[in-house]
Write a structure and sequence with these properties.
This protein is an alpha+beta fold and about 290 residues long. The protein has 3 domains: about 80 residues, Uridine Diphospho-n-acetylenolpyruvylglucosamine Reductase, domain 2; about 120 residues, Uridine Diphospho-n-acetylenolpyruvylglucosamine Reductase, domain 3, CATH 3.30.465.10; about 80 residues, Uridine Diphospho-n-acetylenolpyruvylglucosamine Reductase, domain 1 (Alpha-Beta Complex), CATH 3.90.78. It has 7 helices and 20 strands. It is globular, with a radius of gyration of 19 Å. The two termini are about 25 Å apart. Bound molecules: uridine-diphosphate-2(N-acetylglucosaminyl) butyric acid.
Length: about 290
């Protein structure tokens, strides 16, 4: 039976990934799937296994660059958007936008997620990338997660079963995350709102907000900031095609309408080469670059 008829959600063929990423860049995916529920997810996972095609799970698409030749295989949106609060623990579907969860918990007088304010991603994406700000990172309030392995079996991981380092979580095997639980603590909403406001204001002042981008491109090297180094080397405003090193923050690349992945990759290489040459530092990518297969 055709895949379209096997699930309740949607299957789009040859769908441009530029429509689904904050960079607005990326070629087509053979299958772009929007499952409706857990049943759909299992069906799609078995299709991937049967046909042995590649699979990429997408959260909010805010930290990823797909190449211009797209993705051979299936890109699947994570469908889990439920959330609930029980005492001082919040459990949220992986596709829940962080901003929604932060505002809901703050309103209920629960603190712990405010340090993640301004991060544009989803709960699952934040977990996998251990997303953070100067104020803290996802690993700190993390309690447990429930997920599926790629055979569709349920998996639960608690506390130290997920290993976190700066901007990265290591899972025991590839997983499609269903939901994540965070341990919060009672906190006066006024106090939390002040933290949120401060982080959002700082972000607005120091980062490009109205142009297409994927946040910081590089991880910060030990004891320094990639943005500061790129700025000091006078690279802000440099362009490859329509991709430009942000004039606001050196660790951002912005898509000045119509940039290709090739433009961005060239610019990344240019920055890496210069930083290595001038400072002896090998910058590591913070974003994920996904090839055609
Ligand atoms: N700086 C410059 N020039 C620049 C950019 C920064 O001189 O063009 C200087 C700043 O003046 C400051 C220092 O570098 O003294 C650090 O800058 P910032 O406060 O912007 O912090 P960052 O280390 O560049 C990190 C995260 C951001 C997060 C901010 C704020 C990484 C790679 N980046 O940036 O996260 O939003 O702190 O909390 O860890 C992301 O993960 O995508 C991201 C943007």
């Amino acid at each position: 039976m055709e895949l379209e008829k096997r699930i309740q959600g949607k299957v789009l063929r040859d769908e441009p990934l530029s429509k689904h990423t904050s960079f607005g860049i990326g070629g087509v995916a053979n299958y772009y799937c929007k499952p409706k529920d857990e049943g759909d997810v299992r069906t799609l996972l078995s299709f991937v296994r049967e046909t042995r095609i590649g699979l990429k799970i997408l959260g909010n698409g805010t930290n990823i660059l797909f190449q211009d030749d797209g993705f051979r295989g299936m890109v699947m949106e994570n469908p889990f958007r439920h959330w609930s609060i029980e005492e001082d623990v919040v459990t949220a579907g992986a596709a829940t936008p962080l901003a929604i969860l932060i505002s809901a918990t703050v309103q209920r007088g629960l603190g712990g997620l405010e340090p993640l304010s301004g991060i544009p991603g989803s709960v699952g994406g934040a977990l996998i990338t251990n997303a953070g700000t100067v104020a803290g990172e996802t690993s700190q309030p993390f309690l447990s997660l429930r997920a599926f392995d790629l055979d569709g079996n349920p998996v639960e991981l608690k506390g130290e079963e997920v290993q976190f380092v700066y901007r990265k979580a290591t899972l025991p095997k590839p997983l499609l995350i269903k939901e994540v639980s965070f341990q919060l603590t009672p906190k006066d909403p006024g106090e939390s709102e002040a933290i949120v406001r401060d982080l959002l204001r700082r972000r607005k002042e120091t980062q490009p907000t109205r142009v297409k981008n994927v946040g910081c491109i590089f991880k910060n090297p030990d004891g320094d900031h990639a943005g500061r180094i790129i700025d000091e080397l006078g690279l802000k405003g440099f362009r490859c095609g329509n991709a430009e090193i942000s004039r606001v923050h050196g660790n951002f690349i912005v898509n000045r309408r119509g940039a290709t992945a090739k433009d961005v990759v060239e610019l990344i290489q240019l920055i890496r080469d210069r930083v290595l040459q001038e400072r002896g530092i090998s910058l590591e990518l913070e974003i994920e670059i996904v090839g055609a297969d």
